[in-house]
Specification:
This protein is an all-alpha fold and 174 residues long. The chain is built from 6 helices and no strands. The chain is globular and about 55 Å long. 17% of the residues are buried.
Length: 174
């Protein structure tokens, strides 16, 4: 996703020499919204893959994966909603877009169930986990440490430690 943003920003900057700064800002928001919709759909597909693969392993793994996905999707979708509203989308458009991106999870689950019948569930969970770790290290963590004061950084690190402890606790209970 990072490379796509760079390319699109360069295109916008090329036009920016001839355009009003307000128009440029609106175009950047539109580009950001489009990239967010695409990435959210793909993200939801990997969530669906992970849920399906976890259910193929056991009912308990499926339930805990579904709960984990649900808990991380709530703040994620609120952030997506904010991006779409900031890009000038109406409430109706936001609801429709969010619904359409959520169908990515259903598609991912169907694909995961199909692949699960081919005994592929053994690689689906590591694949989706690797994708999430990549996103965290390449995109989320650098954003956490940019433009913040020391108190904010400590609070974010503390929250990350609590999340890691929660994952450790869940794996111990299972």
């Amino acid at each position: 996703m990072g490379m796509g943003i760079v390319i699109l920003e360069r295109l916008v900057e090329k036009k920016s020499k001839e355009m009003d700064p307000e128009i440029i800002a609106r175009e950047r928001l539109q580009v950001s919204a489009i990239l967010n919709i695409i990435s959210d759909t793909i993200h939801n597909m990997t969530d669906g893959l992970a849920i399906a693969a976890a259910f193929m392993i056991s009912f308990r793994d499926g339930c805990s994966t579904t709960l984990a996905v649900l808990l991380h999707e709530i703040p994620h979708e609120i952030g997506d909603l904010a991006i779409l509203v900031q890009a000038g989308k109406t409430k109706r458009e936001v609801i429709i877009i969010q619904f359409l991106t959520a169908t990515g999870a259903m598609l991912g689950a169907v694909i995961g169930l199909f692949l699960g019948t081919l005994d592929a569930s053994s690689w689906i969970i590591p694949f989706t986990a690797g994708g999430f770790i990549y996103i965290a290290t390449a995109d989320v963590i650098p954003q956490l440490f940019s433009q913040t004061d020391i108190f904010q950084t400590v609070a974010e690190l503390f929250a990350m430690c609590i999340a890691a402890f929660a994952m450790l606790l869940i794996s111990y209970v299972e």
